[in-house]
Amino acid sequence: MFALRTYQKEAITAVANWFRENEEPCLIFASVGAGKSLIAAHIALSIVRRGGKVLVIAPSEELVSQNEQEFISYTGDNLSTGAICASLNRKELGKPITYATPGTAINHPQHYDVICFDECHIGDFNKAESLVSGVVQQNPKARVIGLSGTPYRSTSNVHGKNKFFKECVYSITMGELIEAGFLCKYRFGLDKQEQKLDFSNVRITSGRFNGADLEREAAKQDRLTASIIHEVTQVMTQYTGAFIFGASVRHCEEIMSSLPANEARLITGDTAKVERRQAIADAKAGIVKYLVSRDTLFTGINLPTFDVIVWLRPTESRVIFDQGIGRAIRTSPGKDHALILDYAGNIEKHCNSQISNEASQQRKATYDQVCFSCGCINRNTARECEGCHEKFVFKLCESCGYKNDIAGRSCKSCSAELIDPNDNLDRQAATERKTGEYVNVHKMSVKKIGGRDKPKILVIYETDNGEVTECHLHNMNLPFVKPQWRDFVSDVRGPWFKGLYEHDKVIEVADSFMCPQQLRVKASKKGYWKVLERIMG
């Protein structure tokens, strides 16, 4: 098992803290290359160790397979996982951890304590009839976690008070990962890049560029496309591999006609699964240098050696633009930077303050924070500029002066602890208000007592002061009982579980409960010890 990065630990802790106080779904914003699958793997491992079951949903077979392999690589455990995925010809039910696509998971309902949605921005959780909503409805008591490197759809975030995901509990941006050396730097364009495809006459239909218009405009400029590809092949003598995005399938075929046949592969929605896997395998092996597509290579593809993105199509979607860049900026030995070649006006659309086209005007309400360093227009919720990575809000490290993310706990530059002076005041005041004494706990046991009509759960702690007990009433859903029981379950089983209100179920999973290291107790007037706080290891 290899070590987690600091921000990955912080993300996992943030989710745990959220579920200690809330039951609503939460989201982690982790940029491409942040290791979302590793974060999900650690969360899954924590739950399985406590006797729980986890479902990890991904939108494609590639991501299903990648997420499962990440867990196996991280834990060395290939017995706890199974997959439900028609494309992979797998249907392994009853495993502690199940990896699946939404379409196959909904057809094989099972009980899960936690559901993780990878690339959660793709699913529409606000529509009851959607596949992802159906998966959640099958497990109404499950904790739900979303992970995304682009947590927004159209003109708004996928989290908020009125959204399915109520809170973004942690974020790690592309800029922070680049600064930390976890992603490579990228630059836009060539020194003398004068050629450009004209898509100004393409209409927007239902918020998206009209497909027929795109194909028509691309066909008009076939000679220019050939000239651009010639320029790209000249550039590629200094680079390893390129993703090329065309305006339509026909346009992609035209692009292919100008590329070396033995070094290029076309992948579309109609490409057979076997051919698709072989093309990606050949790209990983260095046999294929160019992967051409319209819209099927933005997620689920991990080719760290590929270092060039070529845009020969416009995109109205900031999500697609960001994910396109993300394909090329993963680190690889000998890789100094990634090159983004845009021949379709996407950089001006998404990264420049001079925005005049209709699609950008529709986004103006969302991307309305202007960076005074470079002039780039950003989302109004952005913490840093997407163009130059200048931070709008930050927490200054007193040790080295580095500007850290406002939610950071430690400095990204020198690892010094970042503490808000107000936090110290709160902590000090809270300590002074605490009463009772601390006792060491050696053993904990859980029993069911009482009759059938009024069963109770008795918890017995063996401590330095003798036996300490706490009793939870038969009806754990009563308003005055539920918070106490929820806190107990959160402490001894972890914050990932909810709805553990059946007494027989409690006894069934009691062996997975963690024993506190200490208790803070207070003697009651009747001579009993009252448990005020459980201090976990």
From TrEMBL:
Keyword Ligase attributed: no
SMART domains: DEXDc, HELICc
MF annotations from Gene Ontology: ATP binding; DNA binding; helicase activity; hydrolase activity
Keywords: ATP-binding, Helicase, Hydrolase, Nucleotide-binding
Stored InterPro entries: Helicase/UvrB_N, Helicase_ATP-bd, Helicase_C-like, Helicase_Restrict-Modif_Enz, P-loop_NTPase
A Pfam match: Helicase_C
GO cellular component: cytosol
PROSITE patterns: HELICASE_ATP_BIND_1, HELICASE_CTER
Name the record gives this protein: UvsW helicase
Organism whose genome encodes this protein: Piscirickettsia salmonis
